[in-house]
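Quick one, C-alpha cells below:
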C-alpha cells in the first residue's frame, strides 16, 4: 500500500507519519500493493481531523474521524474503514475483480425566519471527477463508501447521468433526467 500523507495547519512529524503507516497499514491485508491511501491530517481549533481516501479499481473508500487528540483520531479511523469494508463485503466481492480487493483475509443549523433573498450566488468549491458507467446498485455502494448523501454517476443501463441519494427514512432515491 502506498501512503500519501499531507497536513493542513499541522506539521507532519516522523512520529505521526509512523503512526499513520502502522495503523492504516493494517488494512494492507485487504488491498493489493499498488493501492494508494491518501491521508490528510488537519487541526481546526481544538479538533484533530484525520481523513483517509483509498482508491482501488475504480472504487473510493473514504472515512473521516474527529477527536481532541490526533493519535486517537488515527486509531479510530482504522475501525471506521474496517467497518465499511465488513458492511459492504459481499457487494464489493461481486463488484471487484480478483486481487483488487483481498476479502478472504479479512449539520444542523437553527432555522432563521428572517432570511433575506440571495442576490448573489458564490461558489466556494468546485470538484471534478471521472464518471464511469455503473449500475444503480454500484452507485449506492460507492455513495455509502464515501459517506455522502448523494452520488452522481453514469447509468450503464440507461446511458444517462443519474443521481442516487439517501432519504431521511433510510431508503434510497434515484433522480433521472427527463427531456
Amino acid at each position: 500500500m502506498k501512503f500519501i500523507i499531507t497536513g493542513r495547519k499541522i506539521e507532519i512529524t516522523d512520529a505521526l507519519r509512523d503512526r499513520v503507516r502502522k495503523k492504516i497499514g493494517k488494512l494492507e491485508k485487504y488491498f493489493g500493493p499498488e493501492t494508494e491511501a491518501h491521508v490528510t491530517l488537519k487541526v481546526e481549533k481544538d479538533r484533530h481531523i484525520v481523513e483517509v481516501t483509498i482508491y482501488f479499481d475504480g472504487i473510493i473508500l473514504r472515512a473521516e474521524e474527529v477527536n481532541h487528540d490526533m493519535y486517537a483520531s488515527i486509531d479510530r479511523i482504522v475501525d471506521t474503514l474496517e467497518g465499511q469494508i465488513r458492511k459492504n463485503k459481499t457487494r464489493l466481492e461481486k463488484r471487484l475483480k480478483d486481487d483488487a480487493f483481498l476479502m478472504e483475509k479479512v449539520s444542523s443549523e437553527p432555522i432563521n425566519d428572517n432570511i433575506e433573498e440571495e442576490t448573489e450566488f458564490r461558489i466556494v468549491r468546485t470538484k471534478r471527477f471521472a464518471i464511469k458507467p455503473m449500475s444503480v446498485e454500484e452507485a449506492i455502494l460507492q455513495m455509502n463508501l464515501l459517506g455522502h448523501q448523494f452520488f452522481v454517476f453514469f447509468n450503464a443501463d440507461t446511458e444517462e447521468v443519474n443521481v442516487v441519494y439517501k432519504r431521511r427514512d433510510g431508503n434510497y432515491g434515484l433522480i433521472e433526467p427527463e427531456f
